[in-house]
């Protein structure tokens, strides 16, 4: 299939994107604030919130608005909760749900994903925790071919959409089942230090994905391997710093993001916090982040300032992201029996 570009910008974006994606990003949807999309990062994160019974969040990403007329828009809503906290002396179960939607390009290529996940968290002694999680999802991808033009629709003067494209589309909408799994390990040597890391694999079942009936190419979605490490260190009653790094590999594409964020205690009791951070995606973007936490509700915004060759064409305008998360207790009057300590004000 050959798709013609409607503008020089679209052509430049495509060519530069092919070069950059081979070394700096994955083929899947992703957020720069991966730590604010925990269930997408690793299903073993499901229910991994020591100080709360439940949490919920929304994420929004708008990418490359300065390059193409129809920028990539990715939206996510998620929630998870702890179960059977009183049934297991040294562990608990987490369950979660993720809704993900992405719209990209002139053909409105749309991805809609719904994932459910479950994880078990087991204390190992007094200062470590091991978690294992599994996720299953339904994925739909669809495209509006009426908004695309093809090489054989060129009539010598312009692209005539009334001319048949002769592209053999079997369907403009496909569905498939998707599976993922992961492990996490957390270590908390003191009340003021906390380190955890995890590994996960997405698309374990390698589902097939194609709009064409006569496609002889390999249409299986390759596995995606992810790894992350987080740290949380309380310096004093005013500052907590959180360095973290994330690695993802899918087929020949890789993504590495690393940096830190810091929380400043404005109210003295931790109910009002100022958040600031800086991250770097290798060979792609510098990502500053600011935000605020008010009584368990955190709102952060980040901006991908393109540092790769694509910055020449998009004036470094890569993407911006917004994340809002909320944590809570099922019964706030009784408090919570914390099995796994965390660093907090």
Descriptive overview:
The chain has 3 helices and 14 strands. The protein is mainly beta. It has one domain: monomeric porin ompg (Porin).
Structural class: mainly beta
Helix content: under 10%
- Main β-sheet, in a few words? 14 strands, antiparallel, barrel
The CATH homologous superfamily name equals monomeric porin ompg
Strand arrangement within the widest β-sheet reads 1-2-3-4-5-6-7-8-9-10-11-12-13-14
* SSE string, helices as H and strands as E: HHEEEEEEEEEEEEEHE
Total DSSP E strands = 14
Low-confidence stretches: 1-26
Keywords:
345 residues, single chain, mainly beta
Task: Offer a concise description of the structure.
By secondary structure, this protein is mainly β.
């Amino acid at each position: 299939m050959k798709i013609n570009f409607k503008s020089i910008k679209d052509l430049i974006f495509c060519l530069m994107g092919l070069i950059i994606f081979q070394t700096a990003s994955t083929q899947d949807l992703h957020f720069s604030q991966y730590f604010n999309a925990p269930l997408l990062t690793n299903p073993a994160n499901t229910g991994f919130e020591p100080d709360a019974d439940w949490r919920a969040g929304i994420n929004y990403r708008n990418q490359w608005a300065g390059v193409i007329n129809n920028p990539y828009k990715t939206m996510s809503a998620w929630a998870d909760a702890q179960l059977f906290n009183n049934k297991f002396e040294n562990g608990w179960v987490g369950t979660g749900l993720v809704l993900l939607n992405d719209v990209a390009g002139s053909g409105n290529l749309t991805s809609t994903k719904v994932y459910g996940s479950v994880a078990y968290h087991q204390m190992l002694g007094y200062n470590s925790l091991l978690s294992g999680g599994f996720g299953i999802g339904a994925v739909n991808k669809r495209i509006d071919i009426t908004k695309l033009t093809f090489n054989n629709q060129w009539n010598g003067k312009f692209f005539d959409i009334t001319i048949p494209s002769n592209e053999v589309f079997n369907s403009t909408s496909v569905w498939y089942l998707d599976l993922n799994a992961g492990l996490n390990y957390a270590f908390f040597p003191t009340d003021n230090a906390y380190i955890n890391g995890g590994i996960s694999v997405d698309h374990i079942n390698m589902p097939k994905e194609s709009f064409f009936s006569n496609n002889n190419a390999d249409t299986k979605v390759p596995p995606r391997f992810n790894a992350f490490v987080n740290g949380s260190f309380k310096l004093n009653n005013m500052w907590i710093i959180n360095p973290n790094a994330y690695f993802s590999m899918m087929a020949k594409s890789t993504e590495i993001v690393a940096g830190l964020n810091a929380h400043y205690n404005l109210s003295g009791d931790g109910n009002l916090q100022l958040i600031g951070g800086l991250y770097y995606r290798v060979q792609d973007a510098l990502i500053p982040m600011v935000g605020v936490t008010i009584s368990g509700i955190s709102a952060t915004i980040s901006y991908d300032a393109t540092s790769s060759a694509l910055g020449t064409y998009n004036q470094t305008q890569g993407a911006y992201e917004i994340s809002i998360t909320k944590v809570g207790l099922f019964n706030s009057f009784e408090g919570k029996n914390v099995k796994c300590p965390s660093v907090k004000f």
